[in-house]
């Protein structure tokens, strides 16, 4: 029951975030193979890789945009996936 409540609360937050919150949703280009419960290991590993690829594409796009000064941030260093956040 807690799983469904947490999922519902998270979905609502993403649909209507607070005014002082900015959300970038990073999503894969293809549907995921896993379900919310009881997925097999191969499907989990596949979806993990698909999500990782989507994350790397986002970082590449972010860094490219930042290099072209389309994104104005206080920290001028480019973020790299192996850096601690």
Q: Which helices and strands appear, and what pairs or packs with what?
A:
Layout: H1 2-15, H2 41-67
Task: Describe this protein's structure.
This protein is an all-alpha fold. It has two helices and no strands. It has helices at 2-15, 41-67. The longest helix is centred in the middle third of the chain and has 27 residues, at 41-67. The radius of gyration is 16 Å and the shape is flat. The two termini are 32 Å apart.
Search tags:
mainly alpha; 85 residues; flat
| Low-confidence spans | none
Q: Write down the overall mean pLDDT.
A: 83
- Strand-and-helix sequence, N→C? HH
Q: Strand content of the residues, in percent?
A: under 5%
Radius of gyration: 16 Å
Structural class: mainly alpha
Give the % helix.
Answer: 40-55%
